[in-house]
Each structure stands twice: as structure tokens, then as C-alpha cells.
Amino acid sequence: EAGVAQSPRYKIIEKRQSVAFWCNPISGHATLYWYQQILGQGPKLLIQFQNNGVVDDSQLPKDRFSAERLKGVDSTLKIQPAKLEDSAVYLCASSLSWFGSSTDTQYFGPGTRLTVL
Amino acid sequence: TQLLEQSPQFLSIQEGENLTVYCNSSSVFSSLQWYRQEPGEGPVLLVTVVTGGEVKKLKRLTFQFGDARKDSSLHITAAQPGDTGLYLCAGATAGANNLFFGTGTRLTVIP
Questions:
Q1: A4 conformational bin, left if phi > 0, alpha if psi -120 to 50, beta if neither
Q2: Residue from the list A55, A102, A111 with its beta carbon closest to the beta carbon of B31
Q3: A2-30 pLDDT, tens per residue?
Q4: Which three-class secondary structure state does DSSP give residue A84?
Q5: If phi over 0 gives left and psi between -120 and 50 gives alpha, with beta otherwise, what is residue B82?
Q6: Can you name the residues that pair with A24 across neighbouring β-strands?
Q7: Tens digits of per-residue pLDDT, B18-71?
Q8: How far is B51 from chain A (nearest CA, A)?
Q9: Partner-chain residue, chosen from A101, A108, A111, that has the shortest CB–CB distance to B97
């Protein structure tokens, strides 16, 4: 079974530029998560989708971050404009159940390492 | 905001030694998970505990959920170089369907 795919793996941009990340979850997984992991810290949830609906985006900086999962499958996360403090690894994860229980197994992709100069 | 603090932050030990990693919070969690993350990869789930006082064993790893469901520990017996990685605990509060991750413990096992 293929795992969670993310691209690109690495991205270097200058501040105030825009960037987009792509995630393809495990086939059949209803719930998709985007996390931000700053160096030396644990992942922080940015947004959670169940199918194509947003369940939780309370920690998403909506003035600059946006995410969509239009057909309930793959998803994109965009930052516009980027700031220096956005430098981090952006992880995508998916889980099987449609109701997104906290005890579900979340399967993580390898992440996209973003460096903002 | 739930805060999960892990200790120690860094741990470097010799192969064959035992170690314990702690995950503490002032919040009560309905469930708690432990993950291991290797460089350049995403976290991988090791275990989920849901009952206060619960103990789960996974080969040389022993996980315990505190009686009050505010803390957890991970004990590794006879550590091996393959155990090297970032260990993360993650908790969920009642009614929540997402996780709060701890600060992480970076373990290095020296051959």
C-alpha cells in the first residue's frame, strides 16, 4: 500500500514570496491533516479535513495560509506571503475513519522542508 | 492550550542501556499516543493508550499511561542503535478529534 505522498520535499524561497505544498493521502482515507513542525519542536496542527470539509482550522494563520481539499482526496497548502518564521517542515497525515477520532492511526508523509530567507 | 512537556529533551546513551522518557501535562487526556520520527521522515505511531494506569508493551518498549491520565512514560530496555530518533507523545482531550504533540525527546543510541 502506498503511503502519504508529499511534494516538493524541499523548498527555499525569499520572504514575501508565495509557496504551495501538495499532499496525496493514502487511498480511501477520509481525514487529512496538515501540521507545521518547527525545528526542535513537535508538530502543530494547522488544519484538519474530513473528506472535503474543514473540521478544525483554529491554528491556521488565515491571513497568510490557506488550504483546500476540493475533491476529498489530495490537498494543497499555500503560504502567501511567506515570513521568516514560516521556516519549518510541513507534514501531511491521513487517517482512515470519516469521523477523525483522536485514537485513529495517523499516517504521516515525509514532509516538505521550507526555508524562508 | 494543552501543553505536553517531555523530558529529557535530549538523551545520549550506550547500546544496551535502559532509559525512560516522560511526558507530562496539567491537562487530562482521553487518549495518548507515542510516535517515533527519524530524520527526513514523518512520525510513525508506536502505541495508543486510553485507560488510566494502562501499560502496553511492544517488544523492548513499555508504555504507561498515568492513573490520572495527565502523564505517560516510555521505557526502553537494552537500547539498540535502531532506537535512535525523536520520540513524541501526543494527547487528545475529551471530545476532541485531533492531537496536541509534545515537545519531543531526541534519543541517540551509541553502538
A1: beta
A2: A102
A3: 899 999 999 999 999 999 999 999 999 99
A4: helix
A5: alpha
A6: A5
A7: 999 999 999 899 899 999 999 899 999 999 999 999 999 999 999 999 999 999
A8: 12
A9: A101
